[in-house]
Amino acid sequence: MEHNSLSVLKQYWGFDEFRPLQENIVHSVLQGRDTLALMPTGGGKSICFQVPAMIKEGICIVISPLIALMKDQVEHLRARGIEALAIFSGMSYREVDIALDNCVFGKIKFLYLAPERLYSELVRERIRYMKVNLFAIDEAHCISQWGYDFRPSYLQLNQLRELHPGIPVLALTATATSRVIEDIQKQLHFKFPNVLSKSFARTNLGYMAFEEEDKMGRMLRIIKKMGGSGIVYVRNRRETQEVARILINHGVPADYYHAGLPMKDREQRQNAWMSNKIRVIVATNAFGMGIDKSDVRFVIHLDIPDSLEAYYQEAGRAGRDNKKAFPVLLYQQDDRDRLWTILESSFPAVSFIQKVYHCLGNYYQIAYGAGSGATFDFDVVDFCKKYEIDLLQTISALKFLERDGWLALSEAVYIPSRFKFEVDYQELYKFQVQSAKYDSLIKIILRTYGGVFDLYVPINEFEFAKKLGVPFDVIVELLSGMEKQQISSYIKSTDKPQLQFLQSRVDYKNLYIDIDFIQERKQIKEEQLKAIYHYLDTKDCRSIALLGYFGEDNAEPCGECDLCLVRKHKDGQAAKIRQEIRVLLLEKALTLHELIDSISVGRENGKIRILRELIDEGEVRVEAEMYRWIGR
Questions:
Q1: Claim: this prediction has a pTM higher than 0.85
Q2: Which residues constitute the domain of residue 588?
Q3: Domain boundary among 197, 231, 260
Q4: Helicase C-terminal domain: from which residue to which, for each copy (predicted)?
Q5: Is residue 8 scored above 60 in pLDDT?
Q6: Is the dihedral of CA 144, 145, 150, 154 positive or negative?
Q7: Are residues 381 and 459 in the same domain?
Q8: Taking burial as the number of CB atoms within 10 A of a residue's CB, which of 458, 464, 530, 556 is the most buried?
């Protein structure tokens, strides 16, 4: 078994050996055991399900909420000659139908699914007929209401066990408290508890947190002192531009990144940072998932994250090359107060949730009793502007509507245009002869894409326009024209989130909302907020505070965080003061004023404190207001 896993690892990924913990996880899966794997960000989680899935006959179904990451992993697998597909929100019914058929009858080894896709009867029924060898659940903490990023769509995952009861589950996450670890296994119906984990300790990271009035000035000093590349996290899109401009004005090559940018701009900025063409990327928390840049020397937060789990993940993007790196959190009292304000806005009244649901029905012009299964592009900012409702409360309301099974909402992600011929080759040839204006475009499509008669393929209208020397709009018109004549199917690109109605529209007065769940979630968020305050206020060690939150209670001081460094400095200074007092008083007795003035290091109150310690220890004696060294 070990030989097989290593040979597969070498054949497809080119590695001679596994990273720590990977091999244990792979062997646990190959033994058919349900497994919960806790691995830090960048620890190589995908290998843990990809290797055993390649060894075993059948298909591995991977559940992930991160569509961009799913698409990226599918591309990487295909580049290695491994057949893989992804099904997520925004795909048409026919696209999904064809993809699922390929998983049942074709040679697909990996099917990546967004969790909300399990609401679909079509998807569930087709999975029943697949020869599944493993269920891999990425970001598994999302299934627990005790977790920091609970996603209601993850509650559908227990249906996988019903479809294939004997197939093992591998749950993967980078962060989980002991309560979340227990809940993940319960929600996924583990046959026996089985947790494999690495310590959450990152010994090369020096965590720092400073209450700072001049955050911009402190940020600039940190960046200039640290060297190397880094990330600056801020709370909103406006701040990304403002902070990037400040950095550029001070000679730091920087750019900004947020989910509202066009996909092309996001890719360009991300690639520029990855290749060190720019040194610092200023971003919202939309940046970082799935990015593995090893030489990040600092991650600076200019706002307090919503939870320690989120902070650990974002801070953990520093120092993946195991060299010294520094996550730094800069905050003010207003930032602390703002967290409580945000907390209150995150739990709107039931009447507000009902209002949001009612407005959604009107927004998409859905009749009462209709709309079940309907999917739409969703621009939450436009929606809130139209109905003059608060953005943050609306986002929270949507999550509770999702929790209670009324709708499903996916993340914003770029989905390219897709195309498929709906006639056979002979019918297409007749169409070309009869409709000459389509001939050149059809020839380019046939030369460029294989399998276009069987599968939807991603296309680029700009490339077609460039090759044919015509405007973009002409290409779109030609593609739409072929679809109208039922020669092909053409689905335009989108980069908006997808909102799906899971049930027919009801009157908002008949809308069931689980009030008890809302109150329970609020209590959980309050606990997470208190944990952040504890981290900021600890006097011991930042690393100990973090590890204690994740259940590691016997950690030693890291020696690298701001608190440990201050303590080291004080300890070193104290030792030097002690030594100077000894030397001075061995030479002769001195008055308090003479002694304090003669000590070359430290402040007056520190010198006096150490002198008192030496008196208490019996090393120094006071006689007639003169201080003498007695020693032991």
A1: no
A2: 562-629
A3: 197
A4: 218-361
A5: yes
A6: positive
A7: no
A8: 464
Q: List residues bridging with 488 in a β-sheet.
A: 421
On whether residue 78 sits in a domain, the answer given is yes
List, for residues 574-617, the tens digit of each pLDDT value: 888 888 888 888 888 999 999 999 988 888 888 888 898 898 88
DSSP class of residue 408 equals E
Contact 614, 581 (CB under 8 A): yes
Rounded to an integer, what distance in angstroms lies between the CA atom of residue 189 and that of residue 486?
A: 47
SS3 of 308, please?
helix
- Four-point Cα dihedral 73, 76, 78, 82, nearest 10: -80
Task: Provide the CATH number for the domain around residue 482.
Answer: 1.10.10
Residues 388 and 483 in one domain: no
**What's the CATH code of the domain at 594?**
1.10.10.10
CATH number for the domain harbouring residue 60: 3.40.50.300
Our count of domains for the chain comes to 5
Q: How far is CA 182 from the centre of its chain?
A: 21
- Output the six-digit token pair for 81: 């000659």
pLDDT digits (tens, 9 = 90+) for 420-447: 999 999 999 999 999 999 999 999 999 8
What is the mean predicted confidence (pLDDT) over 185-196?
94
CA distance 307 to 178: 15
Same domain, 16 and 163: yes
Do you know the residue count of the chain?
A: 632
